[in-house]
């Protein structure tokens, strides 16, 4: 795909000359996840995942959409990786589908494994850094049938899976993330039922979270042993909560919002303890924790992945919790999420102060959905261009404030299956026509490519 010659450096994407984004060692990449793009759910021995089951149940996903075909990436992976080259990015973040690579008895499924070997091999040939997430929500259904993340044994099965994949891909992966967004798996999956497996109970959510974090902590030493040269980390989605008023109750509500969204995950990982305030919010929901678990969970990390999307304005609910008060007149995305780049900067600076053992950070997801249309072969996604630019500026200002941030991944490379919202919400910098599977470079992608071309030329030019 050729770049449009009309894109000149006066285009509004280029960051200021003192921005860290010009540094060659600051990684700029794009991200995807297996269930959202692969399709081919019944091919080459792949087993059912909880999202196959959940999305096949009427009423769970908008318009009855499923990941059965998605972006057909399983068959189109080579040309999709070429899109990364067109984008000029340094890195690609992908996830492995657990039910594609391992059967119920824990035996490898070589055909599934070979798919990822080919894919990651090609990324290496292209000189791209590879960030691999082991669990981006597609739990094998047979494990859910035994209790899923409510069953402690799932954590040990996850370590087996991490063992298999890190032996198979040793030396090929630059960074392993154990889990993507355990908050979503635990809270949306087991706390409010919005995601697979669709259970709704706060006590389930805290227990599922504990087992997810235990899975992470059990897998980290396995990954270290099998693939010593790579980075090991985890990816957390974080939320900014701001108080609707200066009242003590509303300020407390905003604090509790951030405890529930951030400290619930980051405290056990970085302080080896759950935040006490979580159980003020959800009294009586303390998970069952065995001796040694918190040590396991708090194993040192090489990096922390941060996913950020929006801010939530809250007030006290008059009891122990918070309730959202949507702000009128603010800019929002197709998801209805408020665009608030300062929230990203403030959270990063706050984490740097709160956690003495904060590892280097990669922004592993940031981006927005818009109702993008192809008109005369082009997609003008001007709101996304401005969104990316403002969030990258927020990252740069956190770096200038002393936070060690090493890279940024756009969510997402392609429009894809947006979970309970199906295919309606478009997050990609490449548009996907789901009828024909045609990919069209959006204007945001053109500008990212142009900026990176310029950055690479500058970085390699003789002084
Ligand atoms: O599409 C998701 C992704 O799978 C996880 N992080 C948030 C994205 C947008 O909702």
What is the gist of this entry?
The protein is built from 15 helices and 11 strands. It has helices at residues 34-37, 50-55, 73-87, 98-101, 110-125, 141-144, 153-168, 182-191, 202-226, 248-271, 278-281, 293-297, 341-354, 382-400, 443-460; strands at 27-31, 91-95, 129-135, 175-180, 231-243, 303-316, 322-324, 361-366, 405-411, 430-433, 438-441. The strands form 2 sheets. It has an 8-stranded parallel β-barrel with strand order 1-2-3-4-5-6-8-9, surrounded by 7 helices. Strands 10-11 form a two-stranded antiparallel sheet.
Proportion of beta-strand residues = 15-25%
- Which CATH C-level class is it? Alpha Beta
Low-confidence stretches: 1-10
Order of helices and strands: EHHHEHHEHHEHHEHHHEEHEHEEEH
Largest sheet: 8 strands, parallel, barrel
- Major sheet: order of its strands? 1-2-3-4-5-6-8-9
Structural class: alpha/beta
- The number of helical runs is 15
Portion of residues within helices: 25-40%
* Rg estimate, integer Å: 21 Å
Ligands present: 5-hydroxymethyl-3,4-dihydroxypiperidine
Q: Quote the distance from N terminus to C terminus.
A: 31 Å
Quaternary status: single chain
Q: Write down the overall mean pLDDT.
A: 96
Q: Number of domains in the coordinates? A: 1
Q: What is the number of beta strands?
A: 11
- Just name the CATH architecture: Alpha-Beta Barrel
EC number: 3.2.1.21
InterPro entries: GH, Glyco_hydro_1, Glyco_hydro_1_AS, Glyco_hydro_1_beta-glucosidase
GO molecular function, one term: beta-glucosidase activity
Protein name: Beta-glucosidase
């Amino acid at each position: 795909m050729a770049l449009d010659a009309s894109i000149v450096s006066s285009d509004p994407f280029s960051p200021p000359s003192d921005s860290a984004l010009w540094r060659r060692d600051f990684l700029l990449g794009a991200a995807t996840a297996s269930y959202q793009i692969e399709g081919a759910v019944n091919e080459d021995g792949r087993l059912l995942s909880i999202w196959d089951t959940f999305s096949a149940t009427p009423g769970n996903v908008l318009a009855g959409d499923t990941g059965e075909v998605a972006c057909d990436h399983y068959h189109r992976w080579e040309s999709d990786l070429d899109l990364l080259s067109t984008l000029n990015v340094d890195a690609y973040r992908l996830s492995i589908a657990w039910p594609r690579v391992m059967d119920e008895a824990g035996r490898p499924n070589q055909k599934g494994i070979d798919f990822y070997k080919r894919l990651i091999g090609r990324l290496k040939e292209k000189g791209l850094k590879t960030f691999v997430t082991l669990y981006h929500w597609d739990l094998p259904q047979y494990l859910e049938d035994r209790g899923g993340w409510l069953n402690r044994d799932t954590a040990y099965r996850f370590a087996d899976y991490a063992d298999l994949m890190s032996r198979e891909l040793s030396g090929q992966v630059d960074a392993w993330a154990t889990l993507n967004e355990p908050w979503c798996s635990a809270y949306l999956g087991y706390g409010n039922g919005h995601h697979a497996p669709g259970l709704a109970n706060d006590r389930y959510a805290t227990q599922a979270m504990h087992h997810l974090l235990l899975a992470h902590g059990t897998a980290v030493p396995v990954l270290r042993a099998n693939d010593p040269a790579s980075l090991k980390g985890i990816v957390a989605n974080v939320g900014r909560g701001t108080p609707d008023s200066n009242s003590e109750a509303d300020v407390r509500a905003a604090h509790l919002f951030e405890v529930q969204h951030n400290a619930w995950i980051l405290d056990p990982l970085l302080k080896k303890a759950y935040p006490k305030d979580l159980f003020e919010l959800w009294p009586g929901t303390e998970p069952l924790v065995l001796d040694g678990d918190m040590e396991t969970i708090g194993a040192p990390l090489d990096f922390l992945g941060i996913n950020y999307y929006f801010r939530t304005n809250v007030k006290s609910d008059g009891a122990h919790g918070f309730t959202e008060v949507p702000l009128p007149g603010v800019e929002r995305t197709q998801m209805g999420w408020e665009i608030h780049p300062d929230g990203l900067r403030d959270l990063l600076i706050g984490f740097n102060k709160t956690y003495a053992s904060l590892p280097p950070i990669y922004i592993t997801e940031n981006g927005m959905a818009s109702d993008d249309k192809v008109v005369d072969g082009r997609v003008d996604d001007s709101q996304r261009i401005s969104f990316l630019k403002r969030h990258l500026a927020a990252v740069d200002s956190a770096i200038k404030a002393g936070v060690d941030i090493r890279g940024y991944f756009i969510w997402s490379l392609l429009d894809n299956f947006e979970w309970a919202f199906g295919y309606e919400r478009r997050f990609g910098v490449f548009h996907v026509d789901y009828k024909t599977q045609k990919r069209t470079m959006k204007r945001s992608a053109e500008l990212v490519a142009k900026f990176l071309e310029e950055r690479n030329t500058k970085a390699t030019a003789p002084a």
